[in-house]
Here is the input.
Amino acid sequence: ERPHHAHEKVRDEDLSQWDTLVVMSGDGLLYEVVNGLMERPDWKDTMKKPLCILPGGSGNALAASINYYAGYDHVAKKKLLTNCTFILCKGLHTQMDLVSLSTASGKRFFSFLGFGWGFISDVDIDSEKYRWLGSARFTLGTLQCLAKLRVYQGRLSYLPAGPEQGTSPAPRDPSTPVPNGQAGHVLPPAGTDAPGSLPTDSLLAPPGQPGP
Here is the structure.
């Protein structure tokens, strides 16, 4: 009904009456649902419940990714919706990682695709008022942001992704990938011992402190 309504609903609702949460939308509404689920005191159990995305938004990146992962040809619009509906009806699912982001202001967010900052985020936010244009809103938003180009100041620190010299790569999880059509199922991150506490970002220094 309004921004953040889905976030609040899944955060406060008794979800035990349903086996699966099905969201018919683009990526933005599912983002609200995931973050609402992660604010629940029983998030560890709730995040084991399968999540299904039925594409109905301006951008449907997660639905397209699942469609590709399931082995279907690249499709869009009604055909993508049909394929995702088949995946839902088959009751197939697989685990999915979450991305964790903590801001300097103390806020914490979770994402299933990635996080954007700077120009791409501005295009997404500024084009919201053109939602009625469908996917064309992003083209119009890009042209507008190019016309009033901003400068973004930031610093990037990172940890190397490759294995250290003399060590072998970590073994691949034999349970993934699972072929033949799998709907999204969020893999709950390893939490702490305190009931309801969120998982810690143990690999990174806190915001404001220098990275390794």
Summary: Confidence is low (pLDDT under 50) at residues 171-185, 187-193. The longest strand covers residues 21-25. The radius of gyration is 19 Å. Residues 77-90 form the longest helix (14 residues).
